[in-house]
Write a structure and sequence with these properties.
Blueprint lengths: L2 E8 L11 E11 L5 E10 L10 H7 L3 H5 L4 H12 L5 E4 L3 H12 L10 E3 H8 L11 H8 L10 H14 L26 H4 L18
Parallel strand pairs: 1-4, 4-5
Antiparallel strand pairs: 1-2, 2-3
Helix pairs in contact: 6-7
Length: 224
């Protein structure tokens, strides 16, 4: 099974009426080569145009470096998600992210756009596992990606808070410390409360919708 190491970037919102929206999806595909060595075999990237507040705030631009021009030319979430799922392929895979926020945001967006979540499968939080493995004094604390790279003796490559760069660097930690991770099998559609709240429909239909995120404002916190 290939390993999909991905990262998302969100809008930065000071208005509690609105939930943050995905504006950047980056991922790498890690597979074993003929010698059984893990290697990056493909990459994926797309910006995503927000459907609720399409004009980026100054805070968002400053935090991510993503410009309004980048966003104006980007697809809406349903179309961007279709491209992402097609890139991941039909073969069973593991999905891995640094922290729990990305999975939560994917589920919330799928709910809002009335899209299936069954593709969010075998998802693992690498940050939590790596942080627990590095616990030295019996106290648990979450380690940031930059800290994890430093502990591995790896320099950060690229720009922080850009989805593809963060995904590439997460993959470096994953491959370097592969024996430290125990990957779980799961499916978001089996989560309590998810199946009943998701109405399945085609991405083509939902691309034309501009569903508000206001009702989700208190469910998910803006990514730090």
């Amino acid at each position: 099974m290939p390993y999909i190491i991905y990262d998302l970037e969100f809008t930065v919102s000071r208005n509690t009426r609105y939930s943050s929206e995905i504006i950047d999806i980056g991922a790498v595909k890690v597979s074993e080569d003929t010698n059984g060595v893990l290697a990056v075999t493909d990459t994926f990237h797309t910006y995503v145009r927000p459907s609720n507040k399409p004009v980026l705030s100054t805070d968002t631009v400053q935090f991510t470096g993503i410009t309004q021009k980048d966003i104006d030319a980007a697809p809406l979430f349903p179309a961007a998600l279709t491209r992402f799922i097609e890139w991941m392929g039909a073969e069973p895979y593991y999905m891995c992210s640094w922290g729990p926020d990305d999975r939560s945001k994917l589920i919330s967006h799928c709910r809002t756009h009335q899209l299936d979540v069954a593709w969010i499968t075998n998802h693992n939080d690498l940050q939590q596992q790596w942080s627990r493995a590095m616990r030295k004094d019996g106290k648990f604390r979450q380690l940031g990606l930059a800290q994890a790279l430093e502990l591995c003796g790896i320099e950060f490559d690229g720009t922080q808070h850009r989805a593809l760069d963060d995904a590439i660097n997460t993959a470096k930690v994953f491959m370097h410390q592969f024996d430290q991770f125990t990957l779980e099998h799961n499916c978001a559609a089996d989560d309590e409360g998810v199946t009943s709240k998701v109405v399945y429909s085609s991405a083509a239909q939902d691309e034309e919708k501009e569903s508000p995120f206001g009702n989700l404002a208190n469910l998910f916190k803006t990514k730090e």
